[in-house]
Amino acid sequence: MSSSLSDFPLRYLRTPEAAQFLGLSDRTLEKHRVYGTGPTYKKLGGRVVYAIEDLQAWANCGTVKSTSDTGNPPRPAHPKYRLTQPRAARHG
């Protein structure tokens, strides 16, 4: 009996499918990858792929109960919003 691709469970998603899984745009997921703020990924033959378990784990990191919930560690700030030096030093 021969196997077809449909016999294998889907384990890895490329960027467009991973973004859709998370409800993000492809570009947003790419930016998270560049800035190191996104889900863990693998490179297979030069292609970026995401394990479904890694996508789910990353999404679960954002689970909160209210806007004041600090139960989860914050993700690294996007470089656009990082301060390179303290405010006092910038205006001094």
From TrEMBL:
InterPro entries: DNA-bd_dom_put_sf (IPR009061), HTH_17 (IPR041657). Residues 12-59 form the Helix-turn-helix domain. One of its GO terms (molecular function) is DNA binding. The keyword Glycosyltransferase does not apply. Pfam families: HTH_17. It comes from the Bacteria. Residues 64-92 are annotated as: Disordered. Keywords: DNA-binding. This is DNA-binding protein. It comes from Paracoccus aestuarii.
